[in-house]
Amino acid sequence: DGGITQSPKYLFRKEGQNVTLSCEQNLNHDAMYWYRQDPGQGLRLIYYSQIVNDFQKGDIAEGYSVSREKKESFPLTVTSAQKNPTAFYLCASSIETGGYGYTFGSGTRLTVV
Amino acid sequence: GEDVEQSLFLSVREGDSSVINCTYTDSSSTYLYWYKQEPGAGLQLLTYIFSNMDMKQDQRLTVLLNKKDKHLSLRIADTQTGDSAIYFCAETSENTDKLIFGTGTRLQVFP
Question: Which of A98, A105, A106 lies closest to B92 in CB terms?
Fold first, then answer.
């Protein structure tokens, strides 16, 4: 079955560490996205990528980095520069940007300890 | 920039109808979507409507679009406890290359 997979489901990070969240899709979608969701709040866009080897900053890119070396994969690194990284992170993909619905992964909950 | 707004909470009794409302500012919206998010999960696409339509019905779901007032609603008939979730509306338009999401409405269904 085609879908989008995020791993791990739960992740704990010590202060000052970088961590990488995985997002893989086998839907043959060109566009991929990373969102952050805080309790009681909506989705905020971190980064998005329209094609391989290209990505753009979203609304809250500071303290995060991404890569898009393969069409299927769009990993997100939460760096130590991110001051408040504890949140629920959602990855999504779409056939192309604009005008099409997104398919979402099941999310990764990151907690700083 | 584009903005999408929703009320934060809605509480209904099981068996009643629920109506979740959404307003948006982008007059060139092309598609409007409703997503459902259950606790600890990703978002699931429920339905969508093209901007030249007024209404779309899909089983217990009815979407109404008032393009003049930039108002979108989702009606859930015979609401069940399994409908308890956060509902997001989203829109895309000629002005943007990505979806703009609302803040989400938390629907609570009580017996």
Answer: A98
Cross-chain Cβ contact A43/B42 below 8 Å: no
* Confidence (pLDDT) at B44: 93
Q: Do B42 and A102 touch (CB under 8 A)?
A: no
Give the chain B residue nearest A87 (alpha carbons): B40
Tally of residues, chain A: 113
Long-range contacts of B40-45 (CB under 8 A, 24+ apart): B40/A88, B40/A107, B40/A109, B41/A106, B41/A107, B42/A6, B42/A90, B42/A92, B42/A104, B42/A105, B42/A106, B42/A107, B43/A43, B43/A90, B43/A92, B43/A102, B43/A104, B43/B88, B44/A104, B45/A101, B45/A102, B45/A103
Task: Give pLDDT tens digits for A74-103.
Answer: 999 999 989 899 999 999 999 866 556 789
